Amino acid sequence: DQQVKQNSPSLSVQEGRISILNCDYTNSMFDYFLWYKKYPAEGPTFLISISSIKDKNEDGRFTVFLNKSAKHLSLHIVPSQPGDSAVYFCAASVNNDMRFGAGTRLTVKP
Amino acid sequence: DAGVIQSPRHEVTEMGQEVTLRCKPISGHNSLFWYRQTMMRGLELLIYFNNNVPIDDSGMPEDRFSAKMPNASFSTLKIQPSEPRDSAVYFCASSSDRKGGDTQYFGPGTRLTVL
Questions:
Q1: Does B58 touch chain A (CB under 8 A)?
Q2: Of A25, A58, A96, A100, which is most buried with the most CB atoms under 10 A?
Q3: pLDDT tens across B44-95, in order?
């Protein structure tokens, strides 16, 4: 039962442009949402999060948007840099139970 | 802080053998999670502990898998007997209890190959 879905397995963008990664969830009880970034041969690292009481959280080049009515989450990276190339996992949690999406591989081309 | 430590980083074993993966969480964290990453299913939660007590093991695939947390600084995930379909990267993560959500910190993972 995939409660968190990332329907795009990969995304390729040009350096300097905006990257938009999308995520959908099914469990309306989730109250905390996170994005993790993963480089090859490393564990996922926390990138940015948002509580269900907010609809936007910004941290430098990274902004997460939450649309609770649509059960949709997105991560915007602007401007995209080649070092952003990685796999991005969307995650949603309630009461310490965290579920991850399958990941989207972002490639930023110079 | 050294972060979450996992060992071994790589494990190659033959079908039927017992495999034990180890994890040392970040000091002071009281929740520990075991995940499995595969190409098909992404990151799956296998089990998590809070204050050394297993809270949810519904993600453990079958009885061949078991996990323990004898103290706050150590956990093991055991597969006995191992099968080729168990081949995956296994991650351990830890977090501290906090209202409003928890950020989990992941170890580097153990890449398991069962031949």
A1: no
A2: A100
A3: 889 999 999 998 888 898 899 999 999 999 999 999 999 999 999 999 999 9
| Contact by Cβ (8 Å): B46, B65 | yes
CB-count burial class (<10 Å; 0-12, 13-18, 19+) for B67 = buried
Residues A66-84: pLDDT tens digits? 999 999 999 999 999 999 9
Q: What is the pLDDT of residue A94?
A: 86
Q: For residue B102, what pLDDT is reported?
A: 66
Element (H, E) at B32: strand B31-38
Gap from B106 CA to chain A (nearest CA, Å): 5
pLDDT score of B7 more than 80? yes
B93: tokens are: 């993560």
For residue A97, the model assigns a pLDDT of 80
Rounded Cα–Cα distance for residues B76 and A22 (Å):
34
Structure tokens at A109: 């081309």
Of B44, B55, B103, the CB nearest to A34: B103
CA of B14, closest CA in chain A: separation in Å?
22
